[in-house]
Design goal:
Helix content: 40-55%
Largest sheet: none
Family: Belongs to the cornifelin family.
InterPro entries: PLAC_motif_containing
Structural class: mainly alpha
Oligomer: single chain
Protein name: Placenta-specific gene 8 protein
Number of helices: 5
Mean pLDDT: 88
Number of strands: 0
Shape: elongated
Radius of gyration: 18 Å
Order of helices and strands: HHHHH
Length: 112
């Protein structure tokens, strides 16, 4: 006996993150987590790889504008691509440190 084909009536959709979140720390709040700050200062590439691994992305992407934009949009943090570009170009260490601090705080709140 032949089985009737399954008909899909709804397609999976994209759920946009709410725009009510903010960065957990400011860009220059290095003293909130000195370990992250020291790692970013003396081993910038290692910290970038940690951020990329936390985000399930390629290690080479951890310090890029794309990673900052992905993180910001994933958690509904206000900003723009232009803001991300300027932050990443002029303050790369502070940018990656901010993302890592944010990941650590969201992880502690079970929100990562």
């Amino acid at each position: 006996m032949a089985q009737a084909p399954t008909v899909i009536v709804t397609q999976p959709g994209f759920v946009r993150a709410p725009q009510n979140s903010n960065w957990q720390t400011s860009l220059c709040d290095c003293f909130n987590d000195c370990g992250v700050c020291l790692c970013g200062t003396f081993c910038f590439t290692c910290l970038g790889c940690q951020v990329a691994a936390d985000m399930n992305e390629c290690c080479l992407c951890g310090t890029t504008v794309a990673m900052r934009t992905l993180y910001r949009t994933r958690y509904g943090i206000p900003g723009s691509l232009c803001d991300d570009y300027v932050t990443t170009i002029f303050c790369p260490v502070c940018s990656v440190c901010q993302i890592k601090r944010d990941i650590n705080r969201r992880r502690a709140m079970n929100a990562f």
